[in-house]
Structure formats: structure tokens, C-alpha cells
Amino acid sequence: MVIMYTCRLHEVAIGLIVVDKNGNEIISLKYDTAASFSDGLARVSLSEKCGFVDSSGNEAIPLIYDRAAPFSDGYASVGMRRTNPIGNWRFNNGIIDKNGMIIVPLDYSRIDNFDENLLRVTKRRQMRNSKATDVLYGVFDRTSGAEVIPCTYSQLSIVEGLIRAITLDGAEYIFDKFGNRIG
Description:
The relative contact order is 0.09. The protein has a 4-stranded antiparallel beta sheet, with no helix packed on it. By secondary structure, it is an all-beta fold. The protein is elongated, with a radius of gyration of 20 Å. The chain is built from no helices and 18 strands. It folds into 2 domains: 107 residues, no CATH class; 75 residues. Strand 12 and strand 13 form a beta hairpin.
């Protein structure tokens, strides 16, 4: 059993101490912040970079990400801050496994659970000569890391195991969960 304590001085977090059930220190005040353990790993940050440590305090995944969500079912969403051509910044998000391997590339503005092991991914595309963006959707299989449906659709929904996709010009297509077009 591991217990986490955050030390505070005048309401400002100054570090993290993680101790085992005997009170032995596992992780010292090395990190700025830490989250609870999830799937055997705890998210930590230092100097605005995030990564993960194991219950022994070893850095399991390097602190290279600008944002990271806790692990769930062996996967975590991570993001890197990127600046677009007109000078605004956004996070490019992806999915990693517990070994730190990138399962879904860090190319997406948003990633949502869609159905079973399918993830709906979102990209923003800058329109020519404009500050406006198109929002485009696609589907990834998080277990294989394969793109099931390319990120080219303005709408995606799932009904009774079938994926309904609509293009920017209004054309409608139906796909199975493997990305095979059936209608």
C-alpha cells in the first residue's frame, strides 16, 4: 500500500512525499505535483512537464509531456503544446500505453471514448486565408493503434455498432467498427 502526501507552505504545493505502509519514503520532494496511482502508475510533473512514476518511485515514463491524464485500462491520454501558423497554441493529443509507447499519434486536438476500444479523434484544419478552422473527425482502435476511419468527416456517430459519418459537403456513409464502408 502506498500513501501520498503533498506538502504545502502558505497554500502553495512545494513537493510530494510518497511513503509505503511502514512510513518509508518512496518518492521524495523531487516533483512539483503528483496524482494518485492508477493502473500502478502515478502522474507527476516537474517544471511544467508531465510523466509517470511507478510505486517504487522510478520514472516509468519520462516527463516529456505538457499534459497527461491518469491511466485507465492500460492507456493514458497525453498532450504536447504546439503553436499553429497564426501564433495560437493548442495541445496535440495522443494515447500511450503503460510502457510509454505511443498508440495513437499526438496529432489530435481531442480524443474521446467512442465505443468499446474505438476512440473518436478530432483534428482542427486551418481554412485558407482565414482564422477559422474546420473540425474533422475520425476513428482509431486503441488496442491496435490503427486508424479505422480517417479524420475527414464533419460528423461521426455510432448506432447499433455501425458508424455514421458525414462529410463537409453533406455526403453520408456507414461503416462497420473495422472501418469497412457498408453504405
